[in-house]
Specification:
A hairpin with a 3-residue loop joins strand 10 (350-354) and strand 11. The protein is globular and about 60 Å long. The chain has an 8-stranded mixed sheet, sandwiched between helices. A 4-stranded antiparallel sheet has the order 9-10-11-12, with helices on one face. Helix content is 30%, strand content 15%. It is built from 13 helices and 12 strands. With 454 residues, it is an alpha/beta fold. Residues 1-15 have low confidence and may be disordered.
């Protein structure tokens, strides 16, 4: 290190002493299944308590309902169509961040501001070597939730401000080995949860309505995974309290996308895009439930704002400081998201945008290609042909072979069963959202405006 670098490092470290810490918590495949979002079948007291201590966003989207692209948007503040992480890192397709953005991720930018940086659990954005973490702990699984908090506490208790990202495996499905074709949700792990919910008609998801023994078991055990996650989050927040640093720590909690069931994960339906989004920001956030529509692309600008770091380039997201401090502050009118790939194939690009009531989906290759109907072992699509009510069957048919446009009234049809696109009564809403979607695509330099593939 030369003298100039040493002086810069020393100055950054001194300035960092009064900066807030950041604890960023994610959960794999977590939809809106918390008590604070209206869930009644299981109890989630620890996440509910976090929601009550800060701001609970009623409507929050991920950028893309697939793990690596979703997380790339969190790390960069850019949509996947811009940052380059179009699909999963382990898809053998070579998806990764564009080189120009690799030094502009959360840990790398915070390092320049004197932060210690750490991660527990998976990163799942490539190239992983470009992320500057001082501490990396990747246990076999953070599904063993009681192993997480002790590791986190040791890191958080260190000197100077910290950024720690903790990634819980629950409620992601698992295979017992890479060769297994069977995916399942473990009902209990190391005794958690102590009282798992039993499969029943009540555990089925309203946005699927496929009723058979397999779906009852899958949905029940998905909920059990969420209950186990709640235990882990509670232990983690208790560990933060023991360090004495909770009063100066920004806590952000999100799911990385919706549940791994057909019409959820890997789609742009609400069940794929909407996630819990909780922010506890001591001295800034006034506890309340917010109707402002936020995106996980807002996470990087929010964290940089808290740390006093100026973004190195224009971002697609915005800091939520203003709206968590003042519920009446102005904010975006529309919320957008997208999809490209999950694995290496198929390529099925979609764009979606919503306002406070209506949702428009544009399937860019409708009539030329079809999306995958399989996700993590879920058999709901084939089972829907004989095991679901007529409206649900029709929705699954649309899911499997979508038209170019879909329009849903989320006020009267929150599960998106009835496509209103092309109907005279809803032409005004459809045209308004088409205009807003085109404006968003232009503003974010969507490459698929001028080319067929990424």
């Amino acid at each position: 290190m030369n003298r100039r670098q040493f002086l810069f490092s020393a100055t950054a470290a001194a300035a960092a002493q009064n900066k807030p810490n950041v604890l960023f918590i994610t959960a794999d495949d977590l939809g809106l299944y918390l008590g604070c979002y209206g869930e009644k079948r299981i109890q989630t007291p620890h996440m509910d308590r976090l929601a009550g201590q800060g701001v609970r966003f009623e409507v929050a989207y991920v950028a893309q309902a697939s793990c690596s692209p979703s997380r790339s948007a969190m790390f960069t503040g850019l949509m996947p169509h811009a940052n380059g992480q179009y699909g999963l890192t382990n898809s053998n397709a070579g998806f990764q961040l564009h080189e120009r953005f690799r030094q502009a991720t959360i840990p790398n930018l915070l390092k320049t501001a004197g932060y210690r940086t750490g991660i527990i659990g998976k990163l799942h954005v490539d190239p992983e070597r470009s992320f500057q973490f001082d501490f990396r702990q990747t246990p076999n699984t953070t599904r063993q939730v009681r192993t997480v908090a002790p590791q986190a506490e040791r890191f958080m208790a260190g000197d100077g401000p910290f950024f720690l990202m903790v990634n819980f495996t629950d409620p992601h499905a698992q295979r017992d080995n890479p060769q297994s074709a069977r995916w399942h949700f473990p009902a209990t792990v190391d005794g958690d949860p102590a009282r798992p919910v039993s499969p029943s008609k009540e555990t089925l998801f309203d946005w699927q309505q496929v009723d058979n023994a397999e779906q009852r078991e899958r949905t029940a055990n998905y909920l059990n995974c969420v209950a186990r996650l709640d235990t882990g989050v509670g232990l983690l927040l208790d560990a933060l309290e023991r360090t004495g640093k909770a009063a100066n720590t920004l806590v952000i909690f999100v799911g990385d996308h919706g549940a791994p069931f057909a019409r959820g994960k890997t789609t742009v339906y609400e069940s794929g895009l909407r996630v819990p989004f909780l922010v506890r920001w001591p001295g800034v956030a006034k506890p309340h439930t917010s109707e402002k529509m936020v995106s996980t692309v807002d996470i990087l600008p929010t964290i940089l704002d808290a740390a006093g770091v100026v973004p190195p380039h224009a971002l697609h997201g915005e800091s939520v400081r203003g709206i968590v401090a003042n519920p009446k502050a102005r904010w975006r009118e529309y919320l957008a998201a997208e999809f490209h790939y999950h694995g290496a194939t198929p390529f099925y690009p979609r764009r979606a945008i919503r306002d406070g009531r209506y949702k428009l989906i544009h399937n860019l290759l409708a009539g030329e290609a079809k999306p995958s109907t399989a996700i993590d072992g879920d058999t709901a699509f084939p089972e829907s042909k004989s095991g679901a009510p007529a409206a649900a069957r029709k929705a699954f048919e649309t899911f499997a072979d979508p038209p170019e446009f879909e329009l849903y009234d989320l006020r009267t049809d929150p599960v998106e069963f009835h496509n209103l696109a092309g109907t005279p009564k809803h032409r005004g809403a459809e045209n308004k959202l088409k205009t807003a979607l085109l404006a968003w695509r232009k503003a974010t330099n969507d490459p698929l405006l001028t080319q067929k593939r990424l």
